[in-house]
C-alpha cells in the first residue's frame, strides 16, 4: 500500500515554540488515526523559522534556495498538510503568508489542509475564520472542518461544559484530516428530527391548483 505523505508547516519563531508543539500534536493525532486504518504515513515538519532568510531572498529574486525548494516541493506533493501559525495583530504571521505566497496557486487544489493557530488570548481565535480560511479557499484547498486554536490557557486544560479541551479538538481535527487523506469523507453530525414537525408543510402545491383555489364560485 502506498505510503501517504503528511507535511506540517510551523511558522513559530521562538524555541521552544507553542506553534511547533501544536503542529507536532496535530501530526501525531493524524498519524495515529491513519495507522489505525492500516494506512502507512510519512510525517515531515517544515520549520519556516529556519527558512526565513531564504523566503525573503526568493521574494525579491524569484529563485528558491535548495532548502526552500525542497520545502515547497514537500508541501505541494503532500497527501495532507497541517498549517500552523502564531497570530500577530489578529491575523497570520508575515512569515507564514510569505511562504504560502511562494506556492503555485494551483498546487494545493483539492489537497486536504488542516488549519491551526496559537496566540496569547482566546480573543484572537477568529483569525482562523477571517484570515486563514479565505487564504486556503483562494488556493482551492480542501479545508478540514475543524480548525484548532490554542491560547496560552488552553495548554493543559480539559475544557468545560461549553468548550471542548485542546486535546479533544486536536483529536477531532486529526481524525477529519485522516479521513480526507484516506479518501473518506468525514461523517456528518447526526441531526435530531422533531417528531411533531408536519412533514407535509413543505409540500409543493402546483400553480394550477393555487389558481383554482382563488376562483370564486
Automatic annotation (TrEMBL):
Keyword Iron-sulfur on entry: no
| A GO molecular-function annotation | oxidoreductase activity
Q: For this UniProt record, give its keywords in alphabetical order, as a comma-separated list.
A: Flavoprotein, FMN, Oxidoreductase
- Record's compositionally biased regions (Acidic residues): 192-202
Q: Which Pfam families match?
A: FMN_red
Question: SUPFAM superfamilies of this UniProt entry?
Answer: Flavoproteins
Q: Where is the NADPH-dependent FMN reductase-like domain?
A: 5-155
Chain segments carrying region Disordered = 182-202
Q: Which InterPro entries match?
A: CE1759_FMN_reduct (IPR023932), Flavoprotein-like_sf (IPR029039), FMN_Rdtase-like_dom (IPR005025), NAD(P)H-dep_FMN_reductase (IPR051814)
Put simply, this protein is called: FMN reductase
Q: Which organism is it from?
A: Streptomyces purpureus
Amino acid at each position: 500500500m502506498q505510503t501517504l505523505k503528511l507535511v506540517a508547516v510551523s511558522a513559530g519563531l521562538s524555541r521552544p515554540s507553542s506553534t511547533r508543539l501544536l503542529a507536532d500534536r496535530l501530526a501525531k493525532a493524524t498519524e495515529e488515526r491513519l495507522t489505525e486504518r492500516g494506512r502507512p504515513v510519512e510525517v515531515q515538519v517544515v520549520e519556516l523559522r529556519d527558512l526565513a532568510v531564504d523566503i525573503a531572498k526568493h521574494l525579491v529574486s524569484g529563485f528558491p534556495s535548495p532548502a526552500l525548494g525542497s520545502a515547497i516541493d514537500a508541501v505541494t506533493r503532500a497527501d495532507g498538510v497541517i498549517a500552523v501559525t502564531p497570530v500577530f495583530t489578529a491575523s497570520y504571521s508575515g512569515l507564514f503568508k510569505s511562504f504560502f505566497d511562494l506556492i503555485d496557486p494551483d498546487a494545493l487544489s483539492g489537497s486536504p489542509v488542516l488549519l491551526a493557530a496559537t496566540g496569547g488570548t482566546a480573543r484572537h481565535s477568529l483569525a482562523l475564520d477571517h484570515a486563514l480560511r479565505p487564504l486556503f479557499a483562494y488556493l482551492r484547498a480542501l479545508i478540514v472542518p475543524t480548525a484548532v486554536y490554542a491560547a496560552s490557557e488552553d495548554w493543559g486544560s480539559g475544557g468545560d461544559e461549553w468548550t471542548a479541551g485542546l486535546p479533544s479538538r486536536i483529536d477531532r481535527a486529526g481524525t477529519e484530516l485522516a479521513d480526507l487523506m484516506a479518501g473518506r469523507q468525514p461523517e456528518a453530525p447526526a441531526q435530531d428530527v422533531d417528531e411533531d414537525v408536519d412533514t407535509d408543510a413543505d409540500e409543493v402545491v402546483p400553480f394550477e391548483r393555487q389558481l383554482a383555489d382563488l376562483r370564486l364560485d
